[in-house]
Amino acid sequence: MPYDSVVIDRNIDIGNMKISDLAECSGICTHTLRYYEKIGLFSASQRSESNYGIYSQDDLTTANLIKRSKICGFSLAETATLLAIKNDKA
Questions:
Q1: 55 forms bridges with which residues in the sheet?
Q2: How far apart are the first and last CA of the chain?
Q3: What ranges do the domains of the chain cover?
Q4: pTM to 2 decimals?
Q5: Structure confidence at residue 19 (pLDDT)
Q6: Tens of pLDDT along 9-40?
């Protein structure tokens, strides 16, 4: 199993995740995900009427990229640069 794979015990709609679902799928705790949002590394694709984040498959991909960058030793600033390159190519 690849290092960034996480076994999910319950059925999660990958296109319509809450932050707790994103945390479970990515293996990144909710506190850390909220910090990454606060500093602008990524944000929820959508917001509910109650202003809760709704996360997509693309958000999961971004979270996994951030996680892999951290594992490789990149700083958060360097990771932000990588994400900017990724987003420019999209």
A1: 17
A2: 28
A3: 19-89
A4: 0.81
A5: 95
A6: 567 777 789 999 999 999 999 999 999 999 99
Token pair for residue 75? Answer: 């700083």
List the structure tokens of 56: 């997509």
The torsion angles phi and psi of 17, rounded to 5 degrees, stand at -100, 145
CATH 1.10.1660.10 fits 19-89, yes or no: yes
What is the token pair recorded at 40? 């602008």
25 touches 18 (CB < 8 A): no
Token couple for 48: 């509910």
Give pLDDT, residue 13: 72
Q: Which residue has the tokens 């498959």?
A: 57
Question: Tokens 């693309």 sit at which residue?
Answer: 58
